[in-house]
Amino acid sequence: MCGADDGRMTDASQIALTRLAGLLADGTRATFCLALLDGRAWTAGELARHAGVAPSTASEHLSRLVAGGVLAEEHQGRHRYVRLAGPAVAQLIEDMAAHDPPAAAPPATLRVAGSRRALAFARTCYDHLAGRLGVAIADALTGRGLLEREAGFAFTEAGVAWLGDVLGELPATTGRRPLARPCLDWTERRPHLAGSAGAALCRHALEQGWVARIGSGRALGVGPAGGEAFSRLLDIDVAALKLPPDQPDNPV
Amino acid sequence: MCGADDGRMTDASQIALTRLAGLLADGTRATFCLALLDGRAWTAGELARHAGVAPSTASEHLSRLVAGGVLAEEHQGRHRYVRLAGPAVAQLIEDMAAHDPPAAAPPATLRVAGSRRALAFARTCYDHLAGRLGVAIADALTGRGLLEREAGFAFTEAGVAWLGDVLGELPATTGRRPLARPCLDWTERRPHLAGSAGAALCRHALEQGWVARIGSGRALGVGPAGGEAFSRLLDIDVAALKLPPDQPDNPV
DNA sequence: CGCACATTGCGGTCGGCACCGAAGTGTCGG
DNA sequence: CCGACACTTCGGTGCCGACCGCAATGTGCG
């Protein structure tokens, strides 16, 4: 009745299946994909260091993953940022990683999901703050008339004064690096504050103990001092950021 | 806050991911798995011929797939039957095969699902009838007092008469092969009729045009003559078998 | 009991691929 | 304009695995 040309269809599926599986069958590439499960965009060098391979090796792997539709890439200056191509790919990788060979393993998927949510909350991007916290800072600066969004980011006169007040001194502006620059956030899809001011603010936050690195990655946690500081300086409610508004509460 | 020991967790996921992906990254193994997507159990030799490799090669691949939890095996006489380990594995393989590299391909999943349903309906098993049709035949024979289920299958006196009436002659019983034997159906999980009577009935159904092979596999289609014959001989409603009762209608 | 057949185990061969180091290209920042 | 840095490209090396043929094992059937 039906079932004609099953052979051709199977052949096409076969090459698609082996191609995708082959991409994930390598330990280094699998390490890349699992690291990218946090939803962030990583640079090629970061992934190389994370996996313990030479940058040239990582470059080849990334090119292959991008060509295979597993990753999406974006060039930003001298960096090559890569992220998972989409939620379907992320789901597929989680499913495969969760698949147990003989006996069941503890629910690893749960921990990955939790980790992903934590990382979307606050992290560093290159040398400045990103994630929901970074976006909230940019929003608060704009809302209080300290930062202009027209033609890229630019601090107002009041904004420069605020910056000097917070940091104790203004960041050096000797080079060509602008004081403020917008940087697209990879998880929020909205700009956060980059440039020398963004870097100085991030360094200051780390030095003051407002935020602290979690583990060896770029994830950040906000301590009590940070909650107080962000609330006092910019009226940001850090606790409210930890659960995104569109995602009430689904601990799986 | 959270996120501790992410490294260990990632390592564990990494080996699980590469292990599973490595199993599916080979063309021959992928061909096996795609063939098994029909839900049937195949013998090692059948899969070897289907993929065009030596039996020894197929044997190694199957052992690896079984050890990796992708396939489940069952030994029946001198045959080694393998099938997908479970619906989760089948879903995973379909998802991976449907994943498009650069541009999207037509919905192959639909066709596979359709094919699978058709194959679960009627097929050959070794040399006799299986699938829902095979199970229905065994049920009808039992219900009409032609077949006893105690201590394996055994035809009653009326059953032997019915058999001779249908076939025109009784199947040879010279060897040690029993006239009737139960054979567990892989998709229905219930026994159907094997033995020399099952083989003779299958051969007769093919010769009379009651059923016909679909493509090169073991799938069978039931023609008009078959519908009439099964209804007249055993009061089986073939049309009702085509949609399983517990699965109303979900064309995906 | 003996033949036929399905399957498995074992060496041996060969191709593919992951890896590195070194050299080249483009960008950032002073 | 120049140095530092991120990344890419290009040989070259070594290992892993897919494949086969042959021999051995176990089962079904006459």
Give the count of structural domains of chain A.
2
Termini of chain A, distance in Å? 43 Å
Question: Main β-sheet of chain A: number of strands, strand sense, barrel status?
Answer: 3 strands, antiparallel
The helix-strand sequence of chain A is HHEHHEEHHEEHEEHEEHEEHH
How much strand of chain A? 15-25%
Q: Which two chains touch over the largest interface? A: A-B, 58 and 57 residues
Strand order of the largest sheet of chain A: 1-3-2
Number of helices of chain A: 11
Average predicted confidence as pLDDT of chain A: 77
Write down the Rg of chain A.
21 Å
Tally of DSSP β-strands of chain A: 11
Structural class of chain A: alpha+beta
Give unreliable regions of chain A as ranges: 1-7, 103-116, 245-252
- Kindly report the oligomeric state of this protein: homodimer
Helix content of chain A: 40-55%
Global outline of chain A: elongated
